[in-house]
Amino acid sequence: MKTPSELYERNAAAWDQDRRHARPKGERRWIQRFVNATAPNADVLDLGCGSGEPIAADLIAAGRAVTGVDASPALIALCRERFPDQTWIVADMRELELGRRFGAAVAWHSLFHLPPDDQIALIPVLARHLAAGAPLMFTSGTTHGVTIGQWRGEALYHASLDTGAYAALLAEHGFVVLDHVVGDPTCGGANIWLARREDR
Predict the structure, then answer these.
(1) DSSP structure class, residue 108
(2) Residue 150 in contact with residue 156, Cβ under 8 Å?
(3) What is the pTM of this model?
(4) Residues 6 or more apart whose Cβ sits within 8 Å of residue 186
(5) In what residue span(s) does the Methyltransferase domain sit (predicted)?
(6) Residue 199, number of CB atoms within 10 A of its CB
(7) CA 151 to CA 163: how far, in whole Å?
(8) What's the whole-number mean pLDDT along residues 9-26?
(9) Alpha-carbon torsion (184, 20, 113, 38), positive or negative
(10) Where does residue 87 fall: left (phi above 0), alpha (psi -120 to 50 degrees), or beta otherwise?
(11) What is the DSSP letter of 56?
(12) How confident is the model at residue 17 (pLDDT cuts 50, 70, 90)?
């Protein structure tokens, strides 16, 4: 089975089309809540930014500067074409060391493509890249394990910790959970976390 990044790289145009034309109606509401939790001049770190649409596009439209990270060069090329004034980086989010702190971070439908142990290791990486008071929003599963889904007839890897493990991990690394919704029907059944990094 190909890794998610390899699958997206090989099918970048198709993924971009599907993503932009099948947007759950409640997604904008969550992005607006996230924006409202950020400072007006916040730089946002978008992990697994894909083609930049629709999430980064919403953030940019709200006046936030975006640094997008994705492992697919083809998807980052689309970001650079569409939003040349923003910062776009081809990288594996697990190896991120940007040497700066951001005013917010989002990992929308991207964290769950990592194996459980890699998700555990990523939370402290996120903490190192966020300023005190910065919000973090991401989607996840609810039970520990791996699920192989399907996209356009190809296997697509997903994994999760259980809900309690996410909560404990966030607390361990200085995050306070502001909201957690399981199976939001307006967002295609997404499980959504909105947290804030505390000053430590």
Answers:
(1) T
(2) yes
(3) 0.93
(4) 24, 25, 26, 27, 29
(5) 44-133
(6) 7
(7) 25
(8) 80
(9) negative
(10) beta
(11) H
(12) confident
Rounded distance, CA 132 to CA 102, Å?
Answer: 9
For 123, residues 6+ apart whose C-beta sits below 8 A from its C-beta are: 169, 170, 172, 173, 175
Q: How many other CB atoms sit within 10 Å of the CB of residue 144?
A: 13
> Which of 172, 104, 108, 167 has the alpha carbon at shortest distance from 133?
104
CA distances from 15 to 47, 76, 193 (A): 17, 13, 24
The full length of the chain comes to: 200
C-beta of residue 34 within 8 angstroms of C-beta of residue 66: no
Please name the residue that has the structure tokens 């790289």. Answer: 9
Q: Where are the domains of the chain?
A: 4-197
Q: What is the largest CA-CA distance in the chain?
A: 46
**What confidence score (pLDDT) does residue 2 get?**
54
Matching residue, tokens 């973090």: 136
Least confident range of 16-20, 80-84, 145-149 = 16-20
Q: Residue 56 has which token pair?
A: 């980064």
* Distance between CA atoms of residues 95 and 121, nearest Å: 10
CATH number of 4-197: 3.40.50.150
Residue 68: pLDDT over 80: yes
Q: Please work out, in degrees rounded to the nearest 5, the angle formed at the alpha carbon of residue 123 by the alpha carbons of 59 and 11.
A: 55
| Sheet of strand 43-47: strand arrangement | 87-90, 65-70, 43-47, 104-107, 135-140, 190-197, 175-184
